[in-house]
Amino acid sequence: MNIETYLEVLRKEVANYQVPVVDLIAVQTKDPFKVLVATILSARTKDEVTAEASERLFKQGGTVEDLAKIDVATLEKIIFPVGFYKNKAKYLAALPDKLAADFGSKVPNTMEGLLTLPGVGRKTANLVLAQAFGIPAICVDTHVHRIMNIWGYVETKTPEQTEMALRKKLPEKYWILVNSLLVAFGQGTCRPVGPHCDRCVLAESCLRRGVKPRKPRKTGKSNEVLRLVSWNVNGLRAVFKKGFMESLVEMAPDVLGLQEIKATVEQLPTELQSLPGYHSFFYSADRKGYSGVVTYTKEKPENVIRGIGDSRFDSEGRVLTLEFSNYFFINCYFPNSKHDLSRLDFKHDFNVRLQEFAEELAVIKSVVICGDFNVAHKEIDLANPRQNRKNAGFTPEECAWMDDFTAAGWIDSFRMKNKEPDQYSWWSYRSRARERNIGWRIDYHCVDKKSRKRIVDVDILQHIHGSDHCPVVLDFTR
Ligand code: SF4
User: Fold this and answer.
1) SS3 for 421?
2) Start-end ranges of CATH 3.60.10.10 in the chain?
3) Is 87 annotated as a binding residue?
4) Where is this site: Interaction with DNA substrate (predicted)?
5) Nearest-angstrom CA–CA distance, 79 and 72
6) What is the DSSP letter of 328?
7) The domain 3-199: what is its CATH number?
8) Which of 199, 290, 374, 427 could form a disulfide with 434 if both were Cys (CB 3.0 to 4.6 A apart)?
9) What is the pTM of this model?
10) Architecture of domain 225-477 in CATH?
11) Is 399 labelled as part of a ligand binding site?
């Protein structure tokens, strides 16, 4: 490969991508102190979160002197929810004294000096040298390390090894630039999970070392098959601003069940109130900004059932059922048992009632229950089962209900077709969990036992962003 050609192609390609947050702060402020602080905040944190936390912090602590006046507890509150915010608050609290004692309250412009500062490792130091001082330095983060190995330009196991390898072979004129290019490219196209090789400008020559091929998008699906899609959008207004209409084209659903819409119909933009090409059915919670589901369908249903006949659950807008000629589509947002498990009993009662409701319908015709079940059923369905055994969504009680539910004949359509690990539909916003694929599979399409043969295919659209969940797909015979 010719690295210069690759990087020049990418220079043009990423010109319209979102600029990585630290670069943006460097360009906007030209202030080494702000670049240093933003870089410390950015470790293991999404750019949007870093940008907001930096903005809040700079209002009160935008200089060394002002930062010195803020105590650790206040810093924690200001920078939350950046990853490892408690540790970072401690580092930031210690920073002014260290800078005052050793560097005259200025940010040092050497690797050695930067590495003595609290919370600063080689990656941070390189980024500060490059972005704040324009000194040739190669900041190797996860994207640079990963993509350089995918291209076969280096063969290394750790970011540190990649930095050393690049220092030997990468032309110096690219040292500063390479981080910005590959972070933007890694966030936009060559993503850690499901890289977009299908639309990549380097697709023809890239070696794709270690890349798990993305499933080809299913186009031209048969008229005999319905595409049923479920997605917990975690706020429909928010996801709309993050490219929902483009995602809709890609998902191409016949029926789309969205959960946790957090809005009443009047609060939504007109495109969502009545989605073009679809019939729209809403069921919102009594409480504003909470829970709620909507189902969009190309075919007009014969009947619509709101709720499951129990006001404890129905006031929360959790279950919306559409009846078609030969199946019921139940769009369901199961309760979360909560961090302190205070809603475990409530959730269990809901589960039991929902199952009764679905079983009554299954006597009449096929039933598909889609939605955020708020439980990972088996160890294969989450990245860290042992650490989460007592946590909401993977407690023995919640898994036991899922055992009972499937023992009663309900089929988890995804597991019927796919036994692979690392298949997740939800990731915490913290600690770059999605980028590292530390996730949970808690979104399902479950089908009554008599309808097993109607399950054609399943998919999890991990590349579709906009929520902390991604859409899940069931192709179901008409
Ligand atoms: S072809 Fe695929 S693996 Fe290679 S750079 Fe492009 S997105 Fe990444």
Assistant:
1) coil
2) 225-477
3) no
4) 469
5) 11
6) E
7) 1.10.340.30
8) 427
9) 0.59
10) 4-Layer Sandwich (3.60)
11) no
